[in-house]
Amino acid sequence: MSIRKLPAPEANPETSPYWEAAKKGVLLLRRCTACGRAHHYPRALCPFCFSDRLEWQAASGKGSIYSFSVMQRAPVPYAIAYVTLEEGPTMLTNIVDCDFASLRIGMTVRLVFKPAEGGAALPMFTPD
After folding, report:
1. Residue 100 and which of 23, 50, 54, 83 are 20 to 30 A apart at CA?
2. Model confidence over 79-120: pLDDT tens digits?
3. Three-state DSSP class for 93?
């Protein structure tokens, strides 16, 4: 079975804590201290209230598939999905280490990290 190669992410000052935590196997979210809502992907302003009062929060690594698509005709087939995390945010990610035919909306999933080119760790999910 071929391995799908993924490019390493480009960190910037806004996202570098996120990628450093990923190297340690931790998925970070941003939580707004003004409105209390968590969001993903990391950014400098809350997408709900536009406050800059944000803090990092470690995610539980648990979620469920909101929607997914399997790319069967790609040179190396893969599945992408929107996963709704226990903390509330929905993130676009890959579903790995499973039979793609078994994927279902609402299926519970757990966090795994897979290497990108250059050694960076990418958050992905697998059925729980």
Report:
1. 23
2. 999 999 999 999 999 999 999 999 999 999 999 999 998 878
3. strand
The reply to whether 11 falls in a domain is no
Q: Is 39 exposed, middle or buried (0-12, 13-18, 19+ CB in 10 A)?
A: buried
In a domain, 98, yes or no: yes
Is residue 6 domain-resident?
no
Span 7-53, pLDDT tens digits: 988 889 999 999 999 999 999 999 999 999 999 999 999 999 999 99
Question: What are residue 17's phi and psi, to 5 degrees?
Answer: -60, -35
Residue with tokens 């209390």: 36
pLDDT (tens digit per residue) in 57-76: 999 999 999 999 999 999 99
Q: Which two tokens stand for residue 7?
A: 């490019």
Q: Containing domain of residue 37, as a range?
A: 16-127
CA distance 21 to 26: 5
Q: For the domain that residue 87 is a member of, what is the CATH number? A: 2.40.50.840
Cα 48–chain centre separation: 19
Residue 85 lies in a domain: yes
